[in-house]
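The freezer alarm interrupted the setup, so I double-checked each line after restarting. Inputs confirmed:
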Amino acid sequence: MALDPDRYSVLTFVERIDFSEDLAVFRLRAPEPVEFTPGQYATIGLVEDDADRPLLRPYSVASAPGSTDLEFFIERVDEGDLTPRLWDLKPGAEVWMRKKVVGRFVLDTDCRYHVMAATVTGVGPYVSIARHQQRLLDAGELDTPHRFLILHGASRSWELGTYYDELSELARTTEWFDYVPTVSRPWEDPEWDGERGRVEDVLRKHVDAASFPLDETAAYTCGHPKMIDKAQGILERSGLPEDAIHEEKYFVER
Ligand SMILES: Cc1cc2nc3c(=O)[nH]c(=O)nc-3n(C[C@H](O)[C@H](O)[C@H](O)COP(=O)(O)OP(=O)(O)OC[C@H]3O[C@@H](n4cnc5c(N)ncnc54)[C@H](O)[C@@H]3O)c2cc1C
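Predicted 3D structure, all chains:
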């Protein structure tokens, strides 16, 4: 079967960079630059000749808009339909993508301050937002940067992947960005000397320490539904109104 070429593009799988057995960055190349608002997701997947329907799933785009190179931070779900097949792809393979990159999990530009909480792959939208802001600043197209605090949780530090280095460097070199990586299984990661615990365990402490003005602050939670449900209450108790808290749940727990 084939998909409607007016609605779908064929991307080329370029490479997979593994952070662990089940976490990797996928780089794909589109035939033309892909425009979207940072934070949105693309619907990508495989179309097999003998299948009666395409195997498509939503993935947050981690790259900045306007490029033919697309980046996705993906977790392999062993019992899942699509992700084990993505891990089998060889460079050059075809991956389909719905042309419209969509979603409402984007920067709330009415606010200047942004608290962003992610479990592992849920950092993808924030990476796109931060990379885009850095580009706008570099191009002289933005005078006053938005202020970001990103909390990024994983079981072990290597699961934070190359985003750990990139976001730590951004925090070191800019005034507008803070990054708090946190590891929930430090006993499996004895060299880790950063924050310990799940995102929701350390969120309140870092929100309080940042002292962002509440009436100019938006919060975002992305990834695992359990973190999102817990963080919602924590953020509300820290004084943020419910409508200032945005969420992107990656799956529903069975
Ligand atoms: C808006 C949006 C953006 C998303 N962005 C990303 C992203 O950037 N990176 C990413 O890795 N995933 C992302 N997801 C999840 C992704 O769309 C798929 O659900 C996931 O990759 C599993 O696909 P699958 O076909 O392998 O498993 P499926 O066959 O679809 O699912 C099998 C079962 O596993 C559960 N499941 C799905 N994901 C997980 C998980 N991570 N951990 C445990 N159980 C799970 C499902 O609820 C289902 O019960 C996003 C989801 C949404 C809704």
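Quick read of the result. Residues 157 and 183 are 6 Å apart (CA to CA).
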